[in-house]
Amino acid sequence: MFNKEKRFKSIVLKVLCALVLSAGTKVYGNGLSDSIPLKVLILGNSITWHGAKPTVGWSGNWGMAASAVSKDFLHLLKSRIYGLSPQTEFQFANIADSFERKFWKYNAADFKKFSDWQPDLIVLEIGENINDTLAVKYELGKHLAHFSAELSEGKPVKICLVGSFWPNQYIDQIMRSTALQNNWMYVDLQGLYKDRNENTAIQQYQNQGVGMHPSDAGMEHIANRIWNEIQHLFK
User: Fold this and answer.
1) What is the mean pLDDT of each run of 10 residues along the chain (235 residues)?
2) Quick one: pLDDT at residue 190?
3) Cα separation of 147 and 116, whole Å?
4) Which helix (H) or strand (E) holds 42?
5) What is the CA radius of gyration of the chain?
6) b/e burial code for range 73-83 (CB count within 10 A of at least 16 → b)
7) pLDDT of residue 234
């Protein structure tokens, strides 16, 4: 009887371990475990996604000024994640008007669909549409922390905060400090915009607003920097 009970417990344990591993859980030698993100939420601005706008010469339906949907940073990132975790799902949105430009007075109800989805990893690619003066005046860091808490509904969700592609005086400092205080990942994009001929689409578009967005090379640099920060989560 004792041997049968022991074998039964052993079988149950093996089944449970298999279920855990199939759900995307990594088990480390120190006994700690960490889940591979199976739901990734990417919220940003026109660099993340922008619908066609013929009046400015933009006909795409992806990250502005990439030459094709497969060339923007979001889809480059998705491809790399799929390579390690084919079961991971994605949601993304442009939140320039709903949060970025009014981070101190946004409507939380606009983002309930994302919190209801219960993401495991949230990537925030924002900063380009935030005014430096307002970032200081309205305490951007405090609102970023509050916004992230609402998106995660208080659960332990991994956060990756991406700095601005365009130069600024205070925004990146605030975001870097906020990431450090909250134990988030932080991705610095500064320096990319200095090489405008390589990393922006200024030579491809007559409209300066479109042209100052990342080129294919710029998008790849952004994807690389974000991937360098988050890839350990998928291994």
Assistant:
1) 48 38 35 74 98 97 98 98 97 98 97 97 97 98 97 93 97 98 97 97 97 98 98 95
2) 95
3) 14
4) strand 39-44
5) 21
6) bbbbbbebbee
7) 97
Residue 81 sits in the same domain as residue 170: yes
User: Is residue 189 within 8 Å of 219, Cβ to Cβ?
Assistant: no
Please give the backbone phi and psi of residue 91, each rounded to the nearest 5 degrees, phi first.
-135, 145
Same domain, 78 and 152: yes
Residue 133: CA atoms inside 13 Å, Cβ hemisphere, count?
A: 0
CA neighbor of 167 nearest in space, from 201, 209, 212: 212
Q: Which domain holds residue 25?
A: 1-29
Asked if residues 46 and 219 have their Cβ atoms less than 8 Å apart, the reply is no
Q: Could you give the number of structural domains in the chain?
A: 2
**CATH number for position 67:** 3.40.50.1110
Q: Are 151 and 95 in contact (CB under 8 A)?
A: no
Whole-angstrom CA distances from 193 to 47, 64, 82, 106, 172 are 13, 15, 28, 29, 14
SS (H, E, C) 4-29: HHHHHHHHHHHHHHHHHHHCCEEECC
Global pTM value: 0.86
Largest CA distance in the chain: 82
Q: In b/e form, how buried is each residue of 191-222, taking b as 16+ CB within 10 angstroms?
A: ebbeeeeebbbbeebeeeebbbbbbbbbbbbb
How big is the CA angle at 150 (ends 32 and 122), to the nearest 5 degrees?
Answer: 55
For residues 58 and 135, state if they share a domain.
yes
